[in-house]
Amino acid sequence: MCADRGYELTEDECQISLNDFKAQYMDESGTVQRSKLGFHARPTADMLKKYTPLPRPGNQSTTPDVGTIHVEFSSQPSVGIKDLKSFAQLLSEKNYHTGIFVAQAAPTSSALKIIPSILPTVMEIFKEEDLLVNISKHELVPKHTLLSPEDKKRLLERYRLKETQLPRIRMDDPMARYLGLKRGQVVKIIRKSETAGRYASYRWVI
Question: Are 149 and 66 spatial neighbours (Cβ–Cβ below 8 Å)?
Fold first, then answer.
């Protein structure tokens, strides 16, 4: 998932064999040591480009709205406020831009309510069962590609549209969550067609 978003990860990290996984992350009893699964990665140059806003009149300096991501797998059977606050503190101390917290079960409702209060740190939460299958590889899921601000501008100018006139995709859509899409971005969706071979459509993230 992180590689598909555009973070720097090696082929060996993404395509680890089952035997190597067992040797590195499982104990003698066959239990996965989730504390060893955590990792962090930096965005690629292409990802930085897609997250760099266009300069505005009077303000030519722009900073990419993306940075190092840290992924942590919780070994706790349940997730509460204390767990998320501890994770948020780690992200802040290490100056990580984004954090993904992978839990065995969904956090409590009270724990979820604290997430908006820990901004500007970006925190995403996934359940392990949601990541067992790579949904982007499913035959019924078309390819989604995030447009850079420049590509988005050219698209709107070409069709003489405002972004609000584009079809929409919610931030909680499974593929939007998979790619970590943010409000206001535009994603290109390529579908197969029996007559045209392939065709592209665009969605504005809300």
Answer: no
User: Which residues of the chain have a pLDDT value below 70?
Assistant: 58-61, 118-121
Q: Which residues on adjacent β-strands are paired with residue 204?
A: 168, 186
Q: Is the pTM of this model over 0.85?
A: yes
In the chain, where the domains are located: 2-132, 136-205
| Whole-number Cα distances in Å, 76 to 32, 71, 106, 117, 144 | 13, 15, 11, 23, 33
pLDDT in tens, 72-96: 999 998 899 899 989 999 999 999 9
- Residue 202 parent element (H or E): strand 197-205
CATH number for the domain formed by residue range(s) 136-205: 3.90.940.20
Give Cα separations from 202 to 35, 52, 121, 159, 192 (angstroms): 39, 20, 28, 12, 14
pLDDT of residue 109: 85
Give the architecture (CATH level 2) of 2-132: 3-Layer(aba) Sandwich (3.40)
Helix or strand holding residue 12 (H, E): helix 11-14
Tokens of 89: 């503190």
